[in-house]
Q: What sequence folds into this?
């Protein structure tokens, strides 16, 4: 990040006055297509799409050098089952049944990849039908389970990735996934975890995306307040069941071709269908641009938990603590974990500034900082300081036992605010 981009970003957030960034809906069918890597910089992406929180599609030129595009795909553009079996056949992968609705998702089972590929080949031979149903390999943590060397190269546009930086530091999880499945497999209507950004590259095959900008999903709620499972279902035309559907704008539709990369903004609900036998690599990620969205989402999650168990508030000892435990079980994170997340990223940015990294240096994926130089570090610290101030002031965070935290949240906030002042001339 250069200084001009940093100043532009800080002015952008200053104008929001603490409100979470959103995203206005462009004209139907209008999603920018980025053709040439040589003429599209990190600053272009940051200003044009990250800050305004708008989707875009990158051409296949951006992923032309990826090993997966050479080795995972046959000369005819189909999945290379032989290579995948040789390389990963014994790896156990999660598989969802697209034909069975379980709440607003699909039930999953686990099986060796070789068993899934055997199913997939039989499914194709059976005219894309199987008595076992329509099975979709989803959320395979390839980077966690196996070496991802020569599979993909993290695009510079997505290199400020706090979510994976944090979980890599704990060495317990990540948010890097492989999806693969036959024609007809799909992902139901949803917004990404923690209101993260995501990016998705088709290694082979084609996908159809339906996008709804933040807030539009409210018009899609049914008469009971629930969001739809499938936004293409004729049931949505029933005004008794979906009384506000007519107030929702048509979805933004994108057809993603092989090699192309889709950027999914924070808080945009979407639904995705595989139009062909498809393999994709996908990452969820959070950084300073959508950190406030993540914090807003976590507050909503806690409120939902508190409402569910409100009847036990006066009789349950440590009711607030139990709400945090339930929240972590349901959402994967609670206020205590969120503070640890902010702390780890903040300490890494403070260390990088203290080392005085040169303005043109870029650290690679998984390295200390995983970011774009001191201007990015200074920007990150400013965003963390703003959100941490809101966390510290939150009445439910004040009920969290922070006695073992080091540093104490107020002390970390003081450090960050001091650095914000000293880096204004950086």
A:
């Amino acid at each position: 990040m250069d200084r001009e981009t940093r100043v532009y970003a800080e002015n952008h957030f200053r104008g929001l006055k603490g409100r979470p960034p959103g995203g206005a809906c462009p004209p139907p069918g209008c999603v920018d297509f980025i053709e040439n890597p040589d003429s599209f910089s990190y600053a272009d992406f940051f200003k044009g799409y990250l800050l305004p929180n708008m989707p875009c599609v990158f051409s296949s030129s951006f992923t032309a050098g990826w090993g997966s595009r050479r080795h995972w795909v046959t000369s005819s553009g189909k999945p290379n089952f032989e290579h995948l079996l040789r390389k990963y056949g014994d790896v156990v992968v999660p598989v969802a049944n697209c034909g069975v609705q379980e709440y607003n998702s699909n039930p999953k089972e686990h099986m060796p990849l070789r068993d899934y590929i055997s199913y997939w080949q039989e499914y194709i031979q059976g005219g894309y039908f199987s008595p076992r149903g329509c099975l979709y390999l989803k959320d395979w943590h390839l980077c966690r389970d196996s070496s991802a060397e020569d599979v993909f190269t993290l695009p510079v546009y997505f290199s400020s990735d706090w979510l994976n930086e944090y979980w890599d530091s704990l060495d317990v999880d990540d948010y890097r996934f492989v999806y693969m499945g036959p024609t007809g497999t799909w992902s139901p209507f949803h917004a990404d975890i923690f209101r993260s950004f995501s990016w998705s590259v088709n290694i082979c095959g084609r996908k159809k995306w339906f996008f709804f900008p933040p807030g539009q999903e409210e018009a899609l709620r049914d008469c009971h307040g629930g969001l739809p499972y499938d936004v293409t279902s004729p049931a949505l035309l029933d005004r008794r069941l979906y009384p506000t559907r007519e107030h929702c704008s048509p979805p933004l539709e994108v057809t993603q071709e092989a090699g192309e990369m889709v950027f999914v903004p924070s808080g945009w609900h979407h639904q995705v269908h595989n139009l062909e036998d498809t393999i994709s690599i996908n990452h969820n990620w959070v950084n300073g641009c959508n950190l406030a969205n993540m914090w807003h989402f976590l507050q909503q999650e806690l409120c939902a938990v508190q409402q569910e168990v409100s009847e036990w508030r006066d009789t349950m000892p440590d009711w607030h603590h139990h709400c945090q435990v339930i929240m972590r079980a349901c959402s994967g994170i609670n206020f205590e974990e969120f503070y640890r997340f902010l702390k780890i990223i903040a300490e890494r940015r403070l260390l990088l500034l203290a080392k005085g990294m040169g303005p043109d240096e870029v650290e690679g994926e998984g390295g200390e900082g995983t970011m774009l130089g001191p201007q990015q570090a200074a920007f990150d610290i400013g965003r963390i300081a703003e959100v941490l101030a809101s966390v510290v002031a939150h009445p439910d965070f004040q009920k969290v036992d922070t006695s073992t935290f080091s540093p104490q949240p107020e002390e970390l906030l003081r450090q960050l605010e001091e650095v914000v002042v000293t880096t204004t001339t950086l």
Q: What stands out?
A: The radius of gyration is 22 Å. The longest helix spans residues 335-355. Confidence is low (pLDDT under 50) at residues 358-370. The chain is about 35% helix and 15% strand.
